[in-house]
Design goal:
The chain is of the alpha/beta class. The chain has helices spanning 19-27, 48-58, 80-86, 113-119, 137-140, 147-156, 162-166, 190-198, 212-215, 217-227, and strands at residues 4-8, 32-33, 68-73, 91-97, 106-109, 168-171, 180-184, 202-205. The chain has a six-stranded parallel β-sheet with strand order 2-1-3-4-7-8, sandwiched between helices. Strands 5-6 form a two-stranded antiparallel ribbon.
């Protein structure tokens, strides 16, 4: 049975960061789900159970025996162990796309101390600006292929609470009992790609900026299919 691609966006942005890739996969005959995590920053911590619930709820209409390939971009990589452990569906593979890696065991901090130091002065009443507002225009502009795509991604972004980045996410033992792989777009994720290789994962490089999946959705889709062990021929 062909697996369903489950494209998990970073809670710092929104599902539109995966829509172009989803369109290419669908056009090639693959089944795709893009769960929305836009609501996970509402309410009090912990936030990670809401991520798991969002993915699980999105798959409720999919028969429990249908295998899935989990694909996580950026910050969503930290949630892969709890997502995998919280699903009723068999997981045929996990692909981390320019993503943060969960700890090997124990729990994973969402943000390193230096990032928290950077973020805390930005918070107003405990809530942060949108992710693209953290950075200089010179850093943000190259990530988008055109103004329309940029508007869609920017307008959709949530304003997450600082406490979202202060949380720790558990790492259930045995979560990686299936093939895992890593797609590197570019720095600063090259060190994480090297760590993925040390873990014995397959690593592929598709050069680009951090949101390269919206710049080259066709190339990204082809690579996801290849890493998932499916037919690599894509339109």
């Amino acid at each position: 049975m062909e697996p369903i691609f489950v494209l998990v966006h970073s809670p710092s942005v929104g599902p539109s960061t995966w829509r172009p890739v989803a369109d290419h996969l669908t056009a090639a005959g693959h089944r795709v789900r893009v769960p929305s995590l836009l609501h996970v920053g509402a309410g009090a911590p912990p936030f990670w159970p809401r991520v798991v619930e969002a993915v699980r709820d999105d798959l409720r209409q999919v028969p429990a025996g249908s295998p899935v390939v989990l694909v996580a971009h950026s910050n969503a990589g930290l949630f892969m162990p709890v997502i995998r452990s919280g699903l009723d569906h068999p997981v045929a593979g996990s692909v981390f796309v320019d993503a943060a890696l969960p700890a090997r065991s124990g729990s994973t901090p969402v943000a390193a101390p230096e990032l928290l130091e950077f973020l805390r002065p930005m918070a107003v009443n405990g809530r942060l600006p949108r992710w693209t507002d953290w950075w200089d225009e010179a850093d943000v502009a190259p990530m988008f292929p055109d103004p329309a795509v940029r508007r869609a991604v920017v307008q959709e972004q949530p304003t997450l609470p600082l406490s979202y980045y202060e949380q720790h996410i558990p790492v259930p033992g045995g979560w990686d009992d299936h093939p895992c792989s890593y797609v590197l777009f570019g720095p600063p994720y090259d060190d994480l790609a090297a760590e993925a290789r040390e873990r014995g994962w397959r690593v592929a490089h598709l050069p680009g900026a951090h949101l390269h999946q919206i710049v080259d959705p066709a190339g990204t889709a082809r690579l996801l299919v290849e890493l998932a062990g499916r037919d690599p021929e894509m339109p």
